[in-house]
Specification:
This protein is α+β, with helices and mostly antiparallel strands. Helices cover 31% and strands 23% of the residues. The structure holds zinc ion (ZN) (3 copies). Residues 18-150 form the Creatinase N-terminal domain.
Length: 376
């Protein structure tokens, strides 16, 4: 099996640039700074991912005109100092028994408004607010939705590798037996294939057979797959810290004309969404392009979710391809295009690729055949 070498790690300079950009964007948005909790934002900005996220306060404070400071519990400080981005920031540790909010407060503007990671613990935010009653807070996704949305060349290379690995997994899954096996068994095969092709983490392995395919939230269950079933396969995870997410819908044996027709419509919708991609185009226009095809074919009420979501250090993040999202596509953004039709009690069809924005339009990071595969 061909394995690609691991990409060069991000450097302190990479993290320094990301933190500086975040502080600048915050200032542009009228914020005094950004408070970053352990999770995807902290990984993106510093490379630091605590092994266990506990009730002890860890927070990165970014403010314009001030060096980045990472407040950490003393017992976590050695690990934090090992993060690649640690060279670009100051560590300030606090020991058990001390008040972590009193340690953090001097770093903050006493009446400032701060962007806060979506996943910060409410307990910590309330602690800071109590210490500094004049401060106010806004969710980072609301304040700086595009903070992680534009990928640089190194991030793009990781997303490409993750997409290629997911494609390899698909190439093998269509050769396994479906008829007579449970959805969970095929899902386990998919997970094993993602790991075989270099993923470190599997986030989801949807196997929606027959009527289960009509529920976009169905993961995989005890249903035994039968000949004649449509099967939605939607799978992804992280490879070298960046995400994959692709969907193909296959059929066990020969499909009926009606099944083929629905699949053709979704495939055409996915293509229309892809062709709408261009720098400067509003995100909602990608959704509209895909949705128009499905609506024109008479299935509009059966396409019950947005057309796509961004992907990076997580498998679901801004930008969202959804009606009402007027922000423009920017060179280097990466997101899914995944229209679907869900016929309750019968079957579902979804086709999904990750796409990146280039000067010439979209470029797919998933390149397996989008025609309906016939499986056994
Ligand atoms: Zn069928
Ligand atoms: Zn997906
Ligand atoms: Zn997706």
């Amino acid at each position: 099996m061909p394995t690609t070498p691991a990409p060069a790690p991000f450097t302190a300079d990479d993290y320094r640039a990301r933190m500086a950009r975040a502080a600048r964007s915050a200032a542009d948005a009228g914020l005094a700074g950004v408070l970053v909790a352990p999770g995807p934002d902290l990984v993106y900005l510093t490379g630091y991912q605590p092994t266990a996220i506990t009730e002890r306060l860890t927070v990165l404070v970014l403010a314009a005109g001030q060096d980045p400071v990472l407040v950490v519990p003393t017992l976590e400080a050695p690990d934090a100092a090992h993060a690649a981005g640690a060279a670009a920031l100051t560590l300030r540790d606090w020991t058990d028994g001390k008040d972590p909010y009193a340690v953090t407060a001097p770093l903050l503007d006493v009446d400032g408004r701060f962007g806060v990671s979506d996943n910060a613990w409410a307990m910590h935010l309330l602690g800071l607010q109590k210490e500094l009653p004049g401060t106010s807070y806004v969710a980072l996704t609301e304040a700086l939705p595009m903070l992680r949305a534009v990928k640089d060349a190194h991030e793009l290379a990781r997303l490409e590798a993750a997409g290629a690995a997911a494609d390899e997994a698909y190439g093998e899954i269509v050769k396994v037996r479906f008829a007579g096996r449970k959805e969970t068994e095929v899902a386990a095969d998919l997970a094993a294939l993602l790991m075989k092709y270099g993923h470190s983490q599997v986030d989801f392995t949807v196997v929606g057979s027959g009527p289960n395919g009509a529920n976009p939230h169905h993961e995989a269950g005890d249903r035994t797959i039968e000949r004649g079933d449509m099967v939605v396969l939607d799978f992804g995870g992280l490879k070298h810290g960046y995400g994959s997410d692709t969907t193909r819908t296959v059929h066990v044996g020969e499909p009926s004309a009606a099944e083929q027709r629905v699949h053709d419509v979704v495939r055409e919708a996915q293509q229309a969404g892809f062709e709408a991609v261009k720098p400067g185009v509003a995100c909602q226009d990608v959704d509209r392009a895909a949705r128009a095809v499905i609506a024109d074919a008479g299935y509009g009420e059966y396409f019950i979710h947005r057309t796509g979501h961004g992907i990076g250090v997580t498998t679901h993040e801004p930008p969202y391809m959804i009606e009402g999202e007027e922000r423009p596509l920017v060179l280097g953004m990466c997101f899914s295009i995944e229209p679907g039709i869900y016929l309750p009690g019968r079957f579902g069809v979804r086709i999904e690729d990750i796409v990146t924005v280039t000067d010439d339009g979209g470029r797919r990071l998933n390149n397996t055949d989008r025609a309906m595969a016939i499986v056994e």
